[in-house]
Amino acid sequence: MSFAVIGMIAGMALGFAGYFGGFGAFLLVAALGAIGFVAGRFLDGDLEPGDFFRTRGDRRR
After folding, report:
1. Contact between 43 and 35 (Cβ < 8 Å)
2. Which of 5, 28, 1, 2 is nearest to 16 (CA)?
3. What is the pTM of this model?
4. Of 16, 18, 20, 47, whose Cβ has the fewest other Cβ atoms within 10 Å?
């Protein structure tokens, strides 16, 4: 599945949450979606825990 389709599905879910549940539900769905995205990137091997805990002087390009 392409990232465009995944983004469309996520946008539709956020839209439904905002319409039916209000702004609080919108924020909850957005936060859980972001957590799920990061967890998926960890499972795919695209991210490592050290990526979040580097100091400013330790930038790699």
Report:
1. no
2. 28
3. 0.63
4. 20
